[in-house]
Amino acid sequence: MDIAIDKDVCIGAGQCALTAPGVFTQDDDGFSEVLPGREDGGGAPLVREAARACPVGAITVSEA
Q1: Which residue from 30, 27, 29 is spatially nearest to 12, judged by alpha carbons?
Q2: How many structural domains compose the chain?
Q3: How far apart are CA 10 and CA 18, in angstroms?
Q4: Which CA distances in Å does 40 have to 8, 28, 47?
Q5: Is residue 57 pLDDT above 80, yes or no?
Q6: What's the pLDDT score for residue 24?
Q7: Where in the numbering of this chain does the 4Fe-4S ferredoxin-type domain appear (predicted)?
Q8: Residue 47 contacts residue 1 (beta carbons within 8 Å)
Q9: pLDDT digits (tens, 9 = 90+) for 31-42
Q10: In whole angstroms, what is the distance from residue 23 CA to residue 6 CA?
Protein backbone atom coordinates (compact mmCIF):
# COMPACT_ATOMS: atom_id res chain seq x y z
CA MET A 1 0.00 0.00 0.00
CA ASP A 2 1.28 3.46 -0.87
CA ILE A 3 -0.11 6.58 0.84
CA ALA A 4 0.27 10.09 -0.57
CA ILE A 5 -1.03 13.42 0.71
CA ASP A 6 -1.36 16.33 -1.69
CA LYS A 7 -0.15 19.25 0.44
CA ASP A 8 -1.54 21.73 -2.10
CA VAL A 9 -5.05 20.35 -1.53
CA CYS A 10 -4.93 19.55 2.20
CA ILE A 11 -6.82 22.02 4.39
CA GLY A 12 -5.79 20.49 7.72
CA ALA A 13 -9.22 19.21 8.72
CA GLY A 14 -7.54 16.35 10.60
CA GLN A 15 -10.11 13.69 9.74
CA CYS A 16 -7.35 11.30 8.67
CA ALA A 17 -5.52 11.65 12.00
CA LEU A 18 -8.77 11.10 13.88
CA THR A 19 -9.66 8.03 11.80
CA ALA A 20 -6.22 6.36 11.65
CA PRO A 21 -4.01 7.97 14.33
CA GLY A 22 -1.41 5.23 14.00
CA VAL A 23 -0.70 6.30 10.42
CA PHE A 24 -1.55 10.01 10.11
CA THR A 25 -0.68 13.10 12.13
CA GLN A 26 -0.66 16.85 11.57
CA ASP A 27 2.51 18.89 11.10
CA ASP A 28 3.35 22.14 12.90
CA ASP A 29 1.28 24.09 10.37
CA GLY A 30 -1.77 21.86 10.92
CA PHE A 31 -1.55 19.97 7.64
CA SER A 32 -1.77 16.21 7.44
CA GLU A 33 1.24 13.98 7.04
CA VAL A 34 2.03 10.29 7.26
CA LEU A 35 3.91 9.26 10.37
CA PRO A 36 7.55 8.25 9.71
CA GLY A 37 7.80 4.58 8.84
CA ARG A 38 4.07 4.32 8.09
CA GLU A 39 4.17 5.23 4.39
CA ASP A 40 2.92 1.70 3.65
CA GLY A 41 0.02 2.01 6.08
CA GLY A 42 1.59 -0.30 8.62
CA GLY A 43 -1.25 -2.76 8.17
CA ALA A 44 -3.73 -0.32 9.70
CA PRO A 45 -7.26 -1.34 8.65
CA LEU A 46 -8.59 2.23 8.68
CA VAL A 47 -6.19 3.81 6.16
CA ARG A 48 -8.68 3.65 3.28
CA GLU A 49 -11.45 4.95 5.54
CA ALA A 50 -9.18 7.85 6.54
CA ALA A 51 -8.66 8.69 2.87
CA ARG A 52 -12.43 8.64 2.30
CA ALA A 53 -12.95 10.85 5.36
CA CYS A 54 -10.78 13.62 3.90
CA PRO A 55 -13.22 16.40 2.97
CA VAL A 56 -11.08 17.59 0.04
CA GLY A 57 -9.74 14.26 -1.23
CA ALA A 58 -6.10 15.11 -0.49
CA ILE A 59 -5.17 11.51 0.40
CA THR A 60 -4.47 8.86 -2.21
CA VAL A 61 -4.09 5.20 -1.25
CA SER A 62 -2.89 2.74 -3.86
CA GLU A 63 -1.45 -0.74 -3.94
CA ALA A 64 2.35 -0.74 -4.09
Answers
A1: 30
A2: 1
A3: 15
A4: 21, 22, 10
A5: yes
A6: 97
A7: 1-29
A8: yes
A9: 999 999 998 888
A10: 16
